[in-house]
Amino acid sequence: MSEKNTQWYEVRQSHNLGYRLMFFALRVFPAPLMRLLAYAVGFFYWLFDKKTRRVSRLYLSKVGKRSTLKHICSFALNLVENVQTWAGKFSVTDLNFRDDDVQDLLSHVKAKEGTLVIISHLGNAQMMKGLAILGENGIEQKMEVTTISNENISGGFNSMLSEVNPDSSINHVSSDNIGPETIFYLQEQLEKGNLVVIAGDRVSAHSDRTIEIDFLGEKARFPYGVFLLISLLNVPTYFINGMRHKDICLNPKYDMCVKKNPLDFNCGRKEREERIRQTARHYAENLEKLCKAHPYQWYNFFDFWS
């Protein structure tokens, strides 16, 4: 009998104690030593977590790779990078701004024009948010960031983050029930010139409405609500990923990959629905391209195609 397919919101995330310990360890030990320890932790999980190996193998088969150990160790390294960022131990000098749409994004930020950022669980999203909030973004100013996430999954991490680093203040909006009041609040934040951040690669725990898209050779479901939100807010929107140059490395450098959504929503209702779906396809195509370039940096450890 096959194992039951589990969605991301059914997976208990219990990294908070590990995060807390790493925050304090980084005050004593150098970051390269913490990364070295991450490989040992990754090996432990690879050895004993059969389900994670199974879903890793499923994903890797779609990008022509096989090493589930390398995949899980890459994720362990990502956890250290998260802590390193929020602990203020990461610098923009370790980041390469690619020749893509980054200058267009920065022009809006410098002009304090609200922008919407769609992230994913490919690469390091926490690094992108941390650099923005802590002023390590290359434009000599801190950014106000509002992030939309599932409170049941990320609430504990957010509370712990505020506790260990009060300078990392960030506005949190629960994705559980986004209604007219939430939209109004987000519009206010954008009018102030702030960033609004949401992930586009996980379906909602509270809505069955999805957009089915060809992704890595098979149909996958993407959250309709995220792309509907893009249409309702109708501000410049960017798909952003922070990617390690090498999947496994003790002293990594990173690329900031920025892709602007080419569509706006100054159109009629019928056309808007088509543009919502086109935007979702643009997002999925960009994500697929980066998955193929950095196959071991995809951290959705559940059956994405179920």
Describe, in short, the structure shown.
This protein has helices at residues 16-26, 31-48, 50-62, 68-86, 102-110, 125-133, 151-164, 180-191, 224-233, 269-293, and strands at residues 95-97, 115-119, 145-149, 171-174, 195-199, 210-215, 218-223, 237-244, 254-260.
Which ranges are low-confidence, i.e. pLDDT below 50, for 5 or more consecutive residues? Answer: none
User: Roughly how many Å is the radius of gyration?
Assistant: 19 Å
> What structural class do helix, strand and pairing data support?
alpha/beta
N-end to C-end Cα span: 16 Å
Main sheet properties: 7 strands, mixed
Key attributes of the depicted protein:
single chain; 306 residues; alpha/beta; 7-stranded mixed sheet; two-stranded antiparallel sheet; 10 helices; 9 strands; globular
